[in-house]
Write a structure and sequence with these properties.
Length: 355
Protein backbone atom coordinates (compact mmCIF):
# COMPACT_ATOMS: atom_id res chain seq x y z
CA UNK A 1 0.00 0.00 0.00
CA UNK A 2 1.15 3.56 -0.64
CA UNK A 3 2.62 4.95 2.59
CA UNK A 4 1.17 7.95 4.38
CA UNK A 5 2.96 11.18 5.25
CA UNK A 6 2.47 13.71 8.03
CA UNK A 7 1.41 17.32 7.59
CA UNK A 8 5.00 18.43 8.24
CA UNK A 9 6.24 16.11 5.48
CA UNK A 10 3.55 17.50 3.17
CA UNK A 11 4.69 21.06 3.92
CA UNK A 12 8.33 20.12 3.25
CA UNK A 13 7.41 18.49 -0.07
CA UNK A 14 5.50 21.60 -1.16
CA UNK A 15 8.45 23.80 -0.21
CA UNK A 16 11.08 21.63 -1.88
CA UNK A 17 9.50 19.29 -4.47
CA UNK A 18 11.80 16.67 -5.95
CA UNK A 19 10.53 17.52 -9.42
CA UNK A 20 7.86 19.60 -11.11
CA UNK A 21 4.24 18.41 -10.63
CA UNK A 22 3.81 17.88 -14.38
CA UNK A 23 6.42 15.11 -14.17
CA UNK A 24 4.99 13.44 -11.08
CA UNK A 25 2.87 10.31 -10.99
CA UNK A 26 2.88 9.27 -7.34
CA UNK A 27 -0.07 9.97 -5.09
CA UNK A 28 0.76 11.35 -1.66
CA UNK A 29 -1.44 10.23 1.24
CA UNK A 30 -1.52 12.90 3.93
CA UNK A 31 -2.80 11.94 7.37
CA UNK A 32 -3.82 14.83 9.58
CA UNK A 33 -3.82 14.92 13.36
CA UNK A 34 -6.70 16.50 15.25
CA UNK A 35 -6.63 20.26 14.83
CA UNK A 36 -4.29 20.33 11.82
CA UNK A 37 -6.89 21.07 9.15
CA UNK A 38 -6.60 24.89 9.30
CA UNK A 39 -2.85 24.75 8.62
CA UNK A 40 -3.39 22.11 5.93
CA UNK A 41 -6.03 24.23 4.24
CA UNK A 42 -3.80 27.30 4.37
CA UNK A 43 -0.90 25.41 2.79
CA UNK A 44 -3.14 24.20 -0.02
CA UNK A 45 -4.44 27.72 -0.71
CA UNK A 46 -0.88 29.06 -0.71
CA UNK A 47 0.21 26.52 -3.34
CA UNK A 48 -2.94 26.62 -5.49
CA UNK A 49 -4.18 23.16 -4.48
CA UNK A 50 -7.94 22.59 -4.48
CA UNK A 51 -9.44 20.63 -1.55
CA UNK A 52 -12.11 18.08 -2.46
CA UNK A 53 -13.93 16.88 0.65
CA UNK A 54 -16.68 14.34 -0.05
CA UNK A 55 -16.06 12.27 3.07
CA UNK A 56 -19.67 12.63 4.25
CA UNK A 57 -20.95 11.07 1.04
CA UNK A 58 -18.40 8.28 1.32
CA UNK A 59 -19.40 7.59 4.93
CA UNK A 60 -23.07 7.55 3.95
CA UNK A 61 -22.32 5.02 1.24
CA UNK A 62 -20.26 2.94 3.65
CA UNK A 63 -23.19 2.96 6.07
CA UNK A 64 -25.55 1.82 3.33
CA UNK A 65 -23.58 -1.35 2.62
CA UNK A 66 -24.58 -4.65 4.15
CA UNK A 67 -21.92 -5.10 6.85
CA UNK A 68 -20.00 -8.33 7.41
CA UNK A 69 -21.24 -10.36 10.38
CA UNK A 70 -20.43 -8.68 13.67
CA UNK A 71 -19.37 -5.33 12.18
CA UNK A 72 -21.03 -1.98 12.51
CA UNK A 73 -22.13 -0.39 9.27
CA UNK A 74 -20.56 3.00 9.97
CA UNK A 75 -17.24 3.26 11.84
CA UNK A 76 -16.66 5.58 14.74
CA UNK A 77 -15.11 8.81 13.49
CA UNK A 78 -13.38 11.57 15.46
CA UNK A 79 -15.14 14.82 16.21
CA UNK A 80 -12.56 16.47 13.96
CA UNK A 81 -13.59 14.67 10.78
CA UNK A 82 -10.58 16.06 8.89
CA UNK A 83 -8.39 13.73 10.96
CA UNK A 84 -10.31 10.69 9.72
CA UNK A 85 -8.99 8.71 6.77
CA UNK A 86 -6.45 10.24 4.39
CA UNK A 87 -6.09 13.17 2.05
CA UNK A 88 -4.89 11.96 -1.35
CA UNK A 89 -2.80 14.59 -3.11
CA UNK A 90 -2.25 14.09 -6.85
CA UNK A 91 0.31 16.81 -7.69
CA UNK A 92 -0.35 16.79 -11.45
CA UNK A 93 -4.01 17.69 -10.84
CA UNK A 94 -3.35 20.33 -8.16
CA UNK A 95 -6.07 18.65 -6.09
CA UNK A 96 -6.22 16.84 -2.78
CA UNK A 97 -9.19 14.60 -1.93
CA UNK A 98 -10.42 13.44 1.47
CA UNK A 99 -10.87 9.66 1.38
CA UNK A 100 -11.95 6.82 3.62
CA UNK A 101 -9.17 4.82 5.29
CA UNK A 102 -7.69 1.97 3.19
CA UNK A 103 -9.89 -0.91 4.40
CA UNK A 104 -13.10 1.09 4.23
CA UNK A 105 -12.15 2.55 0.85
CA UNK A 106 -11.51 -0.93 -0.53
CA UNK A 107 -14.79 -2.20 0.88
CA UNK A 108 -16.86 0.54 -0.74
CA UNK A 109 -15.02 0.71 -4.07
CA UNK A 110 -15.28 -3.09 -4.51
CA UNK A 111 -18.79 -3.57 -3.13
CA UNK A 112 -20.37 -3.74 -6.58
CA UNK A 113 -17.91 -6.49 -7.50
CA UNK A 114 -19.76 -8.82 -5.13
CA UNK A 115 -20.37 -11.65 -5.56
CA UNK A 116 -18.55 -12.04 -8.83
CA UNK A 117 -15.68 -11.44 -6.44
CA UNK A 118 -16.51 -12.13 -2.79
CA UNK A 119 -15.19 -10.03 0.08
CA UNK A 120 -12.91 -12.88 1.10
CA UNK A 121 -11.58 -13.20 -2.44
CA UNK A 122 -11.09 -9.45 -2.66
CA UNK A 123 -8.94 -9.51 0.47
CA UNK A 124 -6.87 -12.36 -1.00
CA UNK A 125 -6.41 -10.48 -4.26
CA UNK A 126 -5.14 -7.46 -2.33
CA UNK A 127 -2.08 -9.56 -1.39
CA UNK A 128 -1.15 -10.25 -5.01
CA UNK A 129 1.51 -8.60 -7.16
CA UNK A 130 1.00 -8.35 -10.92
CA UNK A 131 3.53 -7.27 -13.54
CA UNK A 132 2.55 -5.68 -16.85
CA UNK A 133 5.19 -5.57 -19.58
CA UNK A 134 4.37 -3.23 -22.46
CA UNK A 135 1.89 -0.41 -22.00
CA UNK A 136 -0.18 -0.10 -25.16
CA UNK A 137 -2.76 -2.87 -24.78
CA UNK A 138 -0.96 -3.48 -21.48
CA UNK A 139 -1.96 -0.09 -20.11
CA UNK A 140 -5.64 -0.83 -20.67
CA UNK A 141 -5.16 -4.23 -19.02
CA UNK A 142 -3.44 -2.59 -16.04
CA UNK A 143 -6.32 -0.15 -15.62
CA UNK A 144 -8.92 -2.93 -15.66
CA UNK A 145 -6.87 -4.95 -13.17
CA UNK A 146 -6.67 -1.90 -10.92
CA UNK A 147 -10.37 -1.14 -11.30
CA UNK A 148 -11.37 -4.71 -10.43
CA UNK A 149 -8.80 -4.59 -7.61
CA UNK A 150 -7.22 -7.86 -8.65
CA UNK A 151 -3.97 -7.10 -6.81
CA UNK A 152 -2.43 -4.85 -4.21
CA UNK A 153 0.74 -4.07 -6.16
CA UNK A 154 1.18 -3.39 -9.88
CA UNK A 155 4.61 -3.33 -11.52
CA UNK A 156 4.49 -1.47 -14.84
CA UNK A 157 7.40 -1.91 -17.26
CA UNK A 158 7.95 0.05 -20.47
CA UNK A 159 10.57 2.46 -21.79
CA UNK A 160 8.37 4.00 -24.50
CA UNK A 161 6.78 7.45 -24.56
CA UNK A 162 3.36 8.44 -25.83
CA UNK A 163 3.04 9.73 -29.39
CA UNK A 164 0.03 11.43 -30.97
CA UNK A 165 -0.77 8.33 -33.04
CA UNK A 166 -1.16 6.31 -29.81
CA UNK A 167 -4.30 8.30 -28.97
CA UNK A 168 -6.33 6.19 -31.39
CA UNK A 169 -6.42 3.45 -28.73
CA UNK A 170 -4.80 4.50 -25.44
CA UNK A 171 -6.51 6.25 -22.55
CA UNK A 172 -4.47 9.44 -22.54
CA UNK A 173 -4.63 12.99 -23.90
CA UNK A 174 -2.69 15.27 -26.21
CA UNK A 175 -1.21 16.85 -23.08
CA UNK A 176 0.54 13.51 -22.44
CA UNK A 177 2.50 13.46 -25.73
CA UNK A 178 6.15 12.73 -24.94
CA UNK A 179 5.36 11.47 -21.43
CA UNK A 180 6.45 7.93 -20.45
CA UNK A 181 3.59 5.47 -20.89
CA UNK A 182 4.34 4.08 -17.44
CA UNK A 183 3.55 7.40 -15.77
CA UNK A 184 0.36 7.92 -17.77
CA UNK A 185 -0.92 4.54 -16.60
CA UNK A 186 0.22 5.17 -13.02
CA UNK A 187 -1.70 8.46 -12.92
CA UNK A 188 -4.87 6.75 -14.13
CA UNK A 189 -4.48 4.09 -11.45
CA UNK A 190 -3.89 6.69 -8.72
CA UNK A 191 -7.19 8.34 -9.66
CA UNK A 192 -8.98 5.01 -9.13
CA UNK A 193 -7.21 3.89 -5.96
CA UNK A 194 -4.31 5.90 -4.51
CA UNK A 195 -3.81 3.18 -1.90
CA UNK A 196 -2.83 0.66 -4.60
CA UNK A 197 0.95 0.29 -4.72
CA UNK A 198 2.53 0.92 -8.11
CA UNK A 199 6.16 0.43 -9.14
CA UNK A 200 7.53 1.69 -12.46
CA UNK A 201 10.37 0.17 -14.50
CA UNK A 202 11.26 2.61 -17.27
CA UNK A 203 14.00 0.56 -18.88
CA UNK A 204 14.20 -2.16 -21.49
CA UNK A 205 13.58 -5.64 -20.12
CA UNK A 206 16.18 -8.09 -21.45
CA UNK A 207 18.01 -11.27 -20.51
CA UNK A 208 20.10 -9.40 -17.94
CA UNK A 209 17.24 -8.00 -15.85
CA UNK A 210 14.20 -10.13 -16.68
CA UNK A 211 14.40 -12.33 -13.59
CA UNK A 212 14.72 -9.27 -11.35
CA UNK A 213 11.52 -7.95 -12.96
CA UNK A 214 9.64 -11.23 -12.59
CA UNK A 215 10.85 -11.95 -9.07
CA UNK A 216 8.01 -12.03 -6.52
CA UNK A 217 5.28 -11.52 -9.15
CA UNK A 218 2.13 -13.64 -8.89
CA UNK A 219 1.20 -13.10 -12.56
CA UNK A 220 2.72 -11.55 -15.67
CA UNK A 221 0.68 -9.72 -18.29
CA UNK A 222 2.96 -9.62 -21.33
CA UNK A 223 2.12 -7.02 -24.01
CA UNK A 224 5.48 -5.80 -25.31
CA UNK A 225 6.39 -5.41 -29.00
CA UNK A 226 9.68 -7.30 -29.19
CA UNK A 227 9.41 -10.98 -30.12
CA UNK A 228 12.82 -11.62 -28.54
CA UNK A 229 11.72 -10.03 -25.25
CA UNK A 230 8.49 -12.00 -25.37
CA UNK A 231 10.46 -15.22 -25.77
CA UNK A 232 13.09 -14.44 -23.11
CA UNK A 233 10.40 -13.35 -20.65
CA UNK A 234 8.47 -16.57 -21.15
CA UNK A 235 11.61 -18.65 -20.76
CA UNK A 236 12.33 -16.95 -17.44
CA UNK A 237 8.69 -17.21 -16.35
CA UNK A 238 8.77 -20.93 -17.09
CA UNK A 239 11.89 -21.34 -14.91
CA UNK A 240 10.17 -19.44 -12.10
CA UNK A 241 6.80 -21.21 -12.47
CA UNK A 242 5.08 -17.90 -13.18
CA UNK A 243 1.82 -17.75 -15.13
CA UNK A 244 1.71 -15.53 -18.24
CA UNK A 245 -1.30 -14.13 -20.07
CA UNK A 246 -1.36 -12.19 -23.34
CA UNK A 247 -4.14 -10.84 -25.55
CA UNK A 248 -3.79 -9.20 -28.95
CA UNK A 249 -6.08 -6.61 -30.49
CA UNK A 250 -6.50 -8.90 -33.49
CA UNK A 251 -9.59 -11.14 -33.76
CA UNK A 252 -9.73 -11.58 -30.00
CA UNK A 253 -6.48 -13.55 -29.85
CA UNK A 254 -5.73 -14.84 -26.34
CA UNK A 255 -2.81 -16.85 -24.98
CA UNK A 256 -2.70 -18.35 -21.49
CA UNK A 257 0.59 -19.95 -20.48
CA UNK A 258 0.14 -21.30 -16.93
CA UNK A 259 3.71 -22.32 -16.17
CA UNK A 260 2.92 -22.78 -12.46
CA UNK A 261 0.91 -25.91 -13.28
CA UNK A 262 2.32 -26.75 -16.73
CA UNK A 263 6.12 -26.40 -16.48
CA UNK A 264 6.51 -28.58 -19.57
CA UNK A 265 4.78 -25.96 -21.76
CA UNK A 266 7.09 -24.34 -24.30
CA UNK A 267 7.17 -20.54 -24.79
CA UNK A 268 4.57 -19.43 -27.33
CA UNK A 269 3.01 -22.91 -26.94
CA UNK A 270 5.91 -24.19 -29.04
CA UNK A 271 4.70 -22.29 -32.12
CA UNK A 272 7.67 -19.92 -32.41
CA UNK A 273 11.25 -21.17 -32.35
CA UNK A 274 13.97 -19.34 -30.40
CA UNK A 275 15.76 -18.54 -33.69
CA UNK A 276 12.65 -16.98 -35.22
CA UNK A 277 11.85 -15.04 -32.05
CA UNK A 278 15.36 -13.58 -31.98
CA UNK A 279 15.59 -12.90 -35.71
CA UNK A 280 15.33 -9.46 -37.24
CA UNK A 281 11.93 -10.41 -38.66
CA UNK A 282 9.85 -9.62 -35.57
CA UNK A 283 6.61 -9.36 -37.52
CA UNK A 284 6.87 -12.87 -38.99
CA UNK A 285 7.37 -14.36 -35.51
CA UNK A 286 4.31 -12.61 -34.13
CA UNK A 287 2.11 -13.53 -37.11
CA UNK A 288 3.21 -17.16 -36.74
CA UNK A 289 2.12 -17.09 -33.10
CA UNK A 290 -1.28 -15.63 -34.04
CA UNK A 291 -1.86 -18.64 -36.29
CA UNK A 292 -0.25 -17.49 -39.53
CA UNK A 293 -1.26 -14.86 -42.04
CA UNK A 294 -4.53 -16.64 -42.87
CA UNK A 295 -5.61 -16.34 -39.21
CA UNK A 296 -5.57 -12.55 -39.34
CA UNK A 297 -8.70 -10.61 -40.18
CA UNK A 298 -9.22 -9.88 -43.88
CA UNK A 299 -8.48 -6.18 -43.36
CA UNK A 300 -5.32 -6.96 -41.40
CA UNK A 301 -4.19 -9.36 -44.13
CA UNK A 302 -4.71 -6.61 -46.69
CA UNK A 303 -2.75 -4.20 -44.51
CA UNK A 304 0.33 -6.36 -43.96
CA UNK A 305 1.86 -5.65 -47.36
CA UNK A 306 1.28 -1.93 -46.93
CA UNK A 307 3.21 -1.53 -43.67
CA UNK A 308 6.20 0.72 -44.26
CA UNK A 309 4.76 2.17 -47.46
CA UNK A 310 1.11 3.23 -47.26
CA UNK A 311 0.80 2.34 -43.53
CA UNK A 312 3.13 3.48 -40.76
CA UNK A 313 2.41 0.43 -38.60
CA UNK A 314 0.14 -2.49 -37.86
CA UNK A 315 -3.50 -1.29 -37.62
CA UNK A 316 -5.02 -1.27 -34.12
CA UNK A 317 -8.31 -0.02 -32.67
CA UNK A 318 -9.38 1.24 -29.24
CA UNK A 319 -12.32 -1.14 -28.97
CA UNK A 320 -10.11 -4.12 -29.72
CA UNK A 321 -7.51 -2.99 -27.18
CA UNK A 322 -10.18 -2.73 -24.49
CA UNK A 323 -11.65 -6.09 -25.46
CA UNK A 324 -8.16 -7.57 -25.03
CA UNK A 325 -7.92 -5.92 -21.61
CA UNK A 326 -11.20 -7.52 -20.58
CA UNK A 327 -9.97 -10.94 -21.68
CA UNK A 328 -6.78 -10.47 -19.67
CA UNK A 329 -8.67 -9.40 -16.54
CA UNK A 330 -10.95 -12.45 -16.76
CA UNK A 331 -8.01 -14.86 -16.89
CA UNK A 332 -5.98 -12.89 -14.33
CA UNK A 333 -8.80 -12.98 -11.79
CA UNK A 334 -9.16 -16.75 -12.05
CA UNK A 335 -5.43 -17.46 -11.90
CA UNK A 336 -4.81 -15.09 -8.99
CA UNK A 337 -7.61 -16.75 -7.03
CA UNK A 338 -5.86 -20.09 -7.45
CA UNK A 339 -7.97 -21.65 -10.20
CA UNK A 340 -6.10 -24.06 -12.41
CA UNK A 341 -6.54 -23.14 -16.06
CA UNK A 342 -5.33 -25.23 -18.96
CA UNK A 343 -2.99 -23.71 -21.55
CA UNK A 344 -5.01 -21.79 -24.13
CA UNK A 345 -4.11 -20.38 -27.51
CA UNK A 346 -6.75 -19.15 -29.90
CA UNK A 347 -9.14 -16.48 -31.16
CA UNK A 348 -12.29 -15.35 -29.35
CA UNK A 349 -13.45 -13.47 -32.39
CA UNK A 350 -16.58 -11.30 -32.13
CA UNK A 351 -16.75 -10.93 -35.91
CA UNK A 352 -17.03 -14.70 -36.25
CA UNK A 353 -19.59 -14.97 -33.44
CA UNK A 354 -21.79 -12.10 -34.65
CA UNK A 355 -22.75 -12.61 -38.29
Amino acid sequence: MTSTISLDHFAETLASPGHAPEHDWRPYLVRLAVGEHPRFSALCRQHGITLLDTIDRQLDELASLRPPEGERSRPAVPADLAAYGCWAWLPWTAQVAHLLPPDEYLRVVTDRNRNKITRTEQQLLRTKRVGVLGLSVGAEAAIVIAQEHLCGHLVLADFDRLELSNLNRLGASHADIGRPKTRIAARRIAAIDPYLQVTLLEEEINQDNVEDFLHSLDLLVEECDSAATKYDTRTAARRLGLNVVYAADERGFLSVEPYATHPELSPFHGLVTPDLAHSADRFTALVEWLGGLSALSVRSQESVGLIGTDLSGYPQLAGEARYAAGQIAHVARRLLLGEQISPFHGHLDLAAAIT
